[in-house]
Specification:
The structure is a homodimer of 408-residue chains.
Chain A (H helix, E strand, L loop, with lengths): L9 E7 L16 E2 L2 E2 H10 L4 E8 L4 H10 L5 E5 L4 H14 L11 E4 L9 H14 L1 E6 L4 E5 L5 E4 L5 E11 H10 L2 H6 L3 H9 L4 E4 L10 H15 L2 E5 L4 H16 L3 E5 L6 H4 L4 E6 L4 H15 L7 E9 L2 H23 L3 E9 L4 H21 L8 E3 L1
Parallel strand pairs in A: 1-4, 1-6, 4-5, 7-11, 12-13, 12-14, 14-15, 15-16, 16-17
Antiparallel strand pairs in A: 2-3, 6-10, 7-10, 8-9
Helix pairs in contact in A: 3-5, 5-7, 9-13
Chain lengths: 408, 408
């Protein structure tokens, strides 16, 4: 998408020098971590995945420079340039634009035709909308995302009483991303006043005032929302976890019993709106392994541990778990309660050791034991419980529970 | 608080007839459930806890009348009257006000002096702020919560271009709750036009236009925010879960080993900002049991199950788990690995049975086994893992994991 339409260089500036007082947290919100990764890395990833975005300038406070460089290295971000920002948002954006201007000599980082300005704390912008913003910026000189007003906006008297309400239909909330012809926004910042640098809130306003460019406004999806308060971090985490939990690869084994259990599980998971891909073993299925980050591995014997090790090796080689944790749920089918007791004591330690080892590589390994019953209703109920446990493990991705042997 | 200041009858109207399209969910958001309870019940609870709020009129769509009556019954709400709403928000609020007018003959539900209008989907309003709104409404005739604008508000041209940005300091977002002298708002609704009923957005505006009352505006806390999108449900759930996880009661037992483990756990949990109250057994400690909803019970023998049953009995009699799930984590301290193996097989079934039984009463029972080690570093590490597991169980309140025997 956009490959043909965007035949000019596009860069992104992400101001991330704010202290994020409003979250009520010690860490600025762009550096708050979930799923082992700071929020800003999710935002960077979003832009990095878009082929026509050539470079991303991240503007940080002086004290965040080294931590930011570490984030870039740890998560293998390749399009990022880190620069130091100023004391206000507008000064930081200008620093980012200047870094792009300097790089005009650099053939790897050409001076862009269009620059997108976004917030580090809005990780969910999608390519389709960015394309709209970019093309409108190219054509009109400037463009910006808008959203309907959530609350009525009112004007107050100086004594704190209601003066009047605005007519909601005539106004919009101005959001990010915004797009500009590089020359339009760079010129606006070169010409604007100290007052603008200190107190101005809107790039769109500067482009209008100092470059005479009126921005095209485009309604964006609700996902553009900005992580502002502590509660928003929980919301962002839930969105990411949900998107990671949509599909699963079921490794059924080759025995009649494991295949039967596998097909029941498949039915249950699909009825809960998961996409399920079933394979009998991982051999020659490497491509499939890289299509999801959730695996259920069914076995009746200890042989499954070596298969798990093989899978983890594939993930390591391909860095499949670099950005998001991979979940493997080992399901151990025991044909009798006695078998269950024996197996548990034998294998628990091996599972714990392996779990702790693979966790280093961002693979979360859990085990669930299920005991076969000849009574259909009991068996049905056990499989239902197994389904619930697996769904919960995949959805929550709780690192504290790795290595546990749960009972369905 | 407010008992002396509020010496006049106050009622609340909660319009809850909306369909909540914006969440992207089939269920209107006020009826979405977390921790086994619909959102609207959390909002009702907030008002019910305030002694000077005498009655709460919940206005619902016709098809939600029976479900709403069930919610009132299930969660023992005592101040609530359920009435049917109209086709728009304003018609529903008017229905709520009319229900209060009719009740003027009813000595139990007197016609209020002040009525607070709130949203069913803003569960986190606090008493202190409601007191401000109520007293301002009594004095000025009308009052409303405001918040600073989160985004810049802009006016658009008819072609979709930027016309101008509003100066952020002069405007505010109008939020809920709002308070009114009953006569002021009732009169406004009696006089307002069909157009207002259909398209009006603000009660404050109607009070100004039809009763000549300009509302006093009071800045509220960020917690006033409205559950609008699906992600907000995750945010609301995380706020409630966090507030439930702040304190824990540690039942140490009387043996030297369990007391030693208890004091280590206490230290760990306190260093993670939990308030910990330690008791040696539950006897004659009923009052303490009702001060928190999180319990850790340490024992070396199976005797703990009967103690758990006793606790659950207290919770049932006092309805302590009616509104929020109570968590009990049984910690089983084993002095050797062999003891651990034997205990596991013996007791697992009893624990599973008890867990499933007490879950009916909203008590979540989990077990964690920890094996004593004479090597100080190993023991230290096990206790650290135990702490993590306990914190995770308390924070997540995951019903799927009840009855599991986890290993520290």
């Amino acid at each position: 998408m956009g490959r043909d339409a965007v035949d000019f260089p596009v860069a992104v500036v992400l101001p991330a020098a704010g202290s994020g007082e409003r979250t009520g947290l010690a860490t600025p919100k762009q550096f708050c971590t979930f799923l082992n990764r700071p929020l800003i890395s999710f935002t960077i990833e979003t832009f990095e995945r878009i082929p026509w975005v050539k470079s991303i300038v991240v503007v940080v406070a002086k004290e965040s420079r080294d931590p930011m460089l570490n984030i870039v290295q740890q998560f293998h971000h390749t399009k990022v340039k880190v620069v130091e920002g100023g004391t206000t948002r507008h000064r930081s954006i200008f620093s980012g634009l200047q870094a792009l201007s300097e790089s005009s000599e650099d053939p790897v980082l050409p001076r862009p035709k269009v620059v997108i300005i976004h917030d580090a704390v809005r990780p969910f912008v999608d390519e389709e909308f960015l394309l709209k913003i970019t093309l409108a910026a190219k054509e009109q000189g400037a463009s910006g995302a808008i959203r309907p007003l959530v609350s009525t906006v009112i004007a107050t008297t100086s004594e704190g009483f209601l003066d009047h309400s605005l007519e909601r239909t005539k106004y919009r909330a101005s959001e990010m991303p915004q797009g500009f012809l590089y020359d339009v926004i760079y010129q606006a910042y070169q010409r604007c006043s100290e007052f603008d640098f200190e107190f101005g809130t809107e790039c769109l306003h500067l482009a209008l005032q100092y470059s005479g460019t009126s921005a095209k406004l485009i309604e964006g999806p609700p996902t553009l929302w900005k992580v502002t308060y502590k509660r928003d971090l929980a919301a962002a985490e839930s969105i990411i976890k949900e998107s990671l939990s949509l599909s699963v690869c079921l490794i059924s084994g080759a025995m009649a019993e494991t295949v039967e259990l596998s097909s029941r599980l498949q039915k249950n998971l699909e009825s809960h709106h998961m996409t399920v891909e079933v394979i009998s073993c991982i051999k020659e299925n490497n491509e499939l392994l890289l299509k999801t980050r959730n695996f259920i591995q069914i076995s009746t014997s200890g042989a499954s541990l070596s298969e798990t090790e093989e899978m983890v090796k594939v993930f390591e080689e391909t860095k499949h778990a670099l950005l998001y944790p991979v979940v493997i749920v080992q399901v151990q089918l025991c044909m009798s309660e006695e078998a269950a007791d024996i197996r548990k004591n034998e294998e628990l330690k091996a599972i714990v050791d392996l779990s702790r080892m693979v966790k280093q590589g961002n693979v979360l390994l859990y085990s669930v034991q299920i005991i076969y019953s000849k009574v259909p209703e009991l068996w049905e109920r056990s499989v239902e419980r197994l389904t619930e446990i697996i769904e919960s493990l995949i959805r929550d991705r709780n690192p504290v529970l790795i290595g546990q042997m749960l009972q369905a």
